[in-house]
Amino acid sequence: MQRALELRVLVDGVDMAGKTTLVRALVAELEHRGVPAVRHRGMLAGLHPLQPLLRQLSSARQPDSWWTTTAYVFGGFLLDSLFVRLLPPRPRGRVIVQDSYGDRTVAFGMAGGPYLAAALALRWPRAFARFDLAVFLHASPQARAARIGLGRDHIDARDERTVHDTAFTERFHAFHLHGMGRRHDRLMVLDSSSRSPGDMAREIADRLLADHVPAGP
């Protein structure tokens, strides 16, 4: 018997940490438990009028551009928090498993800048759209470097930088966890260096369903 839950789970983190793999594993785990779920990327709102314009900007170069950071923070994710109240994500009646969001955009803007838009977002992080559970995914530099060497279809400048520029990645993690992380009431921090996607997905599903599914009689 399927249980329709309209919840939002965020899986966020640095490049090559295994976010997309974990998102797919979590969707499969929830479906296995009879909870309809779907992977989602981009803005949450069912309609975001600026999303087509934002897609023309290079997200890979965002840490090196104050303008791109400003556009994504203000024109993208902060507006998204307003639009999603009127136009919730589709399809309805499913757990939305979000593959990355504005949390990492702000952290990249601070690590590469710092840029004013990112600093203001850190001042008021709860202005961003909320999630019922957030998962911040980490992985060691060695694990992420190995994933680049496994023949991933698309490697961009930011992927390379997060693997090879240790100081940059440490700044990202500091602002991501201790800055944007405080906006989430329920936050899990997991390391994919030594755990399988399936194992992490089971732990996340346990936490999500324990928090949001009433116990039986």
TrEMBL record:
Family annotation (InterPro entries): P-loop_NTPase
The protein, known as: Thymidylate kinase
Organism: Streptomyces amakusaensis
